[in-house]
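Changelog excerpt

This revision adds worked examples to the README so contributors can see how folded entries look when concatenated. The first example is reproduced verbatim below.
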Amino acid sequence: MSSIFSFETMWKIWLKYSSFYWDGVKNTLLVSFFAVLMGVCLGLLIAGGRMWKPANTDGSLKKTLKGVVRFLCTAYVEVLRATPLMVQVMIIYFGASAAGLKFSDTNFTILFWGLISVSLNSGAYLSEVIRSGIGAVEGGQLEAARAIGLTQGQAMRYVILPQAIRNILPALANEFVTMIKETSVLNMIGLHEIMFRAGDVRAATYRSLECYVIAAILYFIIVFPLSKLVAAFERRMSKSVTR
C-alpha cells in the first residue's frame, strides 16, 4: 500500500474504524473529567497545607507542625511540576504493578492507576491555582470573619473560598482542556484513549499518517470549541468583576 497520504483512504479508515475512535474519545473525556475533579480536591488539601496556621498548640510544636506540613506540600508541588507527566505515569503504574497492587481486571488496573497518575499531576498545578485564587481575595475579609467569631476553618469555608472560586473557575476550565490533551500519554500504559485507539487502527491498516491525522482532528474538534468557550467565560467573568 502506498505511503502517500490520501484523504480517500483516511475517510475509508474512519468509516470502518470510527467505533474504535469513539471509544477512545469516551475514555479520554472520562479520565480528563475525573482527573480534574480529583485534582481540585487534592489541590485544596495541598493549598490548605501550604497556608495552614495551626491554632491552640504550643508555640514550638505549632512552628514544627507548620514547617513539616508546608515542606511536604511544597515538595509535592515542586517535584510533580518539575518532572514530565509521562515519567510520573510510568513510575506510578509500574511501581504499583511491582508492589502487586493490581485488580483482577487488567483494563481496570490500567484505568485506575492512569487516573491516579494524572490526578496527582493535576493536583500539583491546581493547588497553585487555588492558592493564588485565595491570595487574590482582599486580606481584610479574613480578619473581618474572625472578628465576628468565625474560626479559621469557618472563615475559609464560608467567606474566603466562595470568593476564591470566582477567581479560579476559568483556570479550572483551562485545566480540563489541557488534561484532554495530556491524557494522550496514558496510551503508553495501555489505556484505551484516542492515541491508543489510533495505534490499534494503524496496526490493522498499516496506514500511520491517516490514522494519526484522524486522532488530531478529533482532538481539535473537542479542544477548540472548549477553548473558545473558556475564553468567552473568562471575558464575561472579567466584565462582571469590573462592574
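The second example, added in the same revision:
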Amino acid sequence: MLALLKKRRSIRKFKFKKVSTDQIEQLVQGALLSPTSKNRRPWEFIVVTEEKGLTALSKSKTHGAQFLEGAPLAIVIIGDPEVSDVWIEDTSIASILIQMTAESLELGSCWIQIRERFHNDKKSAEDYVKEVLSIPAAKRVASIIAIGHPDEEKKPHSEENLLYEKVYHNRYHEDCRMRLSNTPNIKEQ
C-alpha cells in the first residue's frame, strides 16, 4: 500500500483513450466500499463519460477544473446532509478511495474541489455543477475526480521528503517530534 501511496500523483493530462467499462466498474466498487460514519452512506456518485458533460464540468470554477475537458472520465461525489452530519468527511474518504483505486488500475486522477469554490462572482461551483447534472438542491457536491490514462509522468514521492517534523509522539511538544527512523525523539528529563 505504501508503494501505491508514493506513486499516486495528481495527473492533469490524459491520453485520448477511454477508460474501460471494467475499470469504471472497479472505480465505482471502490467508491461504494468506502467507509462511512455509522454506515450511513451519505454519498452518491455520478459517472460522467460524455464529452459534452466533461466540457461543461471543466468550466465549473475559474481555476483548477479546465483539464477535465481532456479527461475521458469524471466521477462527481455528492453528499446528503440529511443522511449524515459528517457527509463532508464521508465524501472525502470516498474521493480518495476512488483516486487510490484509479492508481491501482494504472490510471491517473486529480481531485477537483467543488464545495466552497466559485464558478464566478455570482454563482458557486457547487450550484453550477448541480445545474449541469440536474442534482437536487438538498444534495451537496463535494468534489469531482478526473480520471484517465496518464499523458504525463511524475516522479513518485520519496521518503526523504516526508515531513516527519509534523509528527509527534504521545503529545504535541517540540521534544516529542518523530525522527526519520520513526522512533521518538524524546529528551530524557
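Reviewer comment on example two: The helical segments are 2-7, 21-32, 51-57, 87-104, 125-133. The radius of gyration is 19 Å.
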